[in-house]
Every structure is written in C-alpha cells, then in structure tokens.
Amino acid sequence: MDRSGVFKDVATTGKSTMGWFHGFKLHIIINDKGELLSFCVTQANVDDREPLKNEGFLKDIFGKLFGDKGYISEKLQKLLFADGVELITSIRNNMKNSLMLMSDKILLRKRSVIETVNDELKNICQVEHSRHRSVINFMCNLIAGIIAYQFLPKKPSIKFDKLETNQLALY
C-alpha cells in the first residue's frame, strides 16, 4: 500500500470491516427520506468519530442521529447532546444493556438504509473509483456524484409512523 503514488501526500491507508484500503472516507448524514443533509471527506486513517466533533459537519443538524458501533463514545454523546443532537448507537457485545426507547430500537434496525445510500453513491453516481490522479479531479467527481444523487427520483427511505403519546422522555 505504501508504494502507491496516487495522492501521495494526501491519501492515507486505513482499515475497514472489508480490510485495508488506501484513500479517503466519505462521511454522510441523511434524513429519513434518504436526502443528504451533510457530508465530510477525511483521510482513511481518521477515526470515524472525528467528523462529528467538527462544527461544520453538524451545522443545522438536530434531533436523533443513528450510527453504528464505530460511533460509540460516552464523551462524544455528551458533547453532541449539549448541541441538541442525540447520538443513538447499538451496544457492543461486552457492554451492559442500556435502556432505549422502543422507537429508537426500531429505527436503529433500519440503519441499513445508510448502507443502501452508500451503495447508490458508489455504483449509480460513481463516486468510488481509482482513475483520478489529481485531488481536484477526485473532488470534482465526488461533488458531481453527490449532486447527481440528490437529483435521483427515488431514494432509499424509512417509512415509519410517528406515534404521539403523553409519555415524557427524561434524560
């Protein structure tokens, strides 16, 4: 991996669930309709939680934010909660169970929609390929792919009915 000359001074090597890769990571925030609300590009070796600490990435984002186990951090949860964002993640195998609203549990199971969005960005909008030899061309292709995704007529979405109750949720 170190022999790669593409983006020599910019790209790094990182590890994902699929193995090692050289390049960048695209972090996205979507809503329940599958629309992109925010995105951020980082080097491959950057921790997944780092972009959430960036004020620009979460600008105008509020409410519940669902993430995978890679986003588990009590310190980050408290930091985001102070800004009006409730980070909801599943628990690791070695963690104690925590109380969670049933609606949050159901929505957490629907997190696969984000993987579908990632798949559409990669395969339909072609944001993932290795033909670029300059950072500018890479960024132009990425932004063009994100714009193309926003114009897709049918996006993956979560269909759920919001149940209004008189229960109070205390934090």
TrEMBL record:
Domain Transposase DDE: 3-135
One matching Pfam family: DDE_Tnp_1_3
Highest rank taxon of the organism: Eukaryota
Keywords: Membrane, Transmembrane, Transmembrane helix
Transmembrane segments: 135-152
Name of the protein: Transposase DDE domain-containing protein
Organism: Rotaria socialis
